[in-house]
Amino acid sequence: MTREELIQEAFKALKNAYAPYSHYHVGACVLAKDGRTFYGANVENASYGATICAERNAVFNAYSNGCRKDDIEAIAIVSDGGRLGAPCGMCRQVLCELLNQDTPIYLSNGTEEKDTNIAELLPMQFTMEDVLG
Ligand code: THU
User: Fold this and answer.
1) CB under 8 Å to 8, separation ≥6 — which residues?
2) Number of domains composing the chain
3) Predicted local distance difference test score (pLDDT) of residue 65
4) Average pLDDT of the chain?
5) Where would I find the beta strands (DSSP E) of the chain?
6) Largest separation between any pair of C-alpha atoms in the chain
7) Average pLDDT, stretch 90-111?
8) Are 65 and 37 in contact (CB under 8 A)?
9) How confident is the model at residue 125 (pLDDT cuts 50, 70, 90)?
10) I need a surface site. Which of 6, 23, 100, 114 has the fewest CB within 10 A?
């Protein structure tokens, strides 16, 4: 699957966003090296803090189906905002543990695009090594 196709898959996931509070829709798609795809959309809640972002749902979905960081080829994260959205801080923390540092992260809002990775998005990381020594 090409980068463009993966971005299109993420836009399909965005259609499933449940965002009655923010009306901000996000979709994500993880591409595994074996060709499998794992989707996520943001799912909000009246208790706002219980909301889960699209990219965490997609990566947790991949892990829940047995994928680990070395099995992941790339992730696309897309939104319908007026400017290019980038993962929130909590998602960056999750992605820094569950993706490789250089795993491609493709961002798009349909008009603007940026290719990045977690090393760029989250410098000075707090990791498992800090906790376990
Ligand atoms: N959101 C995501 O899905 N991913 C992000 O990285 C940024 C925020 C969602 C959470 C919430 O449903 C809405 O966008 C507004 O914050």
Assistant:
1) none
2) 1
3) 98
4) 98
5) 26-32, 37-41, 72-79, 105-108, 113-116
6) 44
7) 98
8) no
9) very high
10) 23
Q: What percent of the chain has pLDDT over 70?
A: 100
Say if residues 77 and 88 touch (Cβ distance below 8 Å).
no
Is residue 73 packed enough to be buried (19+ CB in 10 Å), middle (13-18) or exposed (0-12)?
middle
**Degrees (nearest 5) of the Cα angle 80, 84, 90?**
90
Among 75, 89, 78, CA closest to 123: 89
How far does residue 42's CA lie from ligand 1's centre (Å)?
6
Domain of 85, in residue numbers:
3-132
Task: Give the domain CATH number at 106.
Answer: 3.40.140.10
Q: What's the pLDDT score for residue 62? A: 98
E strand or H helix at 6: helix 3-14
pLDDT score for 84: 98
The pLDDT-based confidence of 112 (bands split at 50, 70, 90) is very high
For residue 113, the CA-to-ligand 1 centroid distance in Å is: 17
**Neighbour tally for 12: CB within 10 Å:** 14
Instruction: Determine which residue's CA is closest to atom 10 belonging to ligand 1.
Output: 53
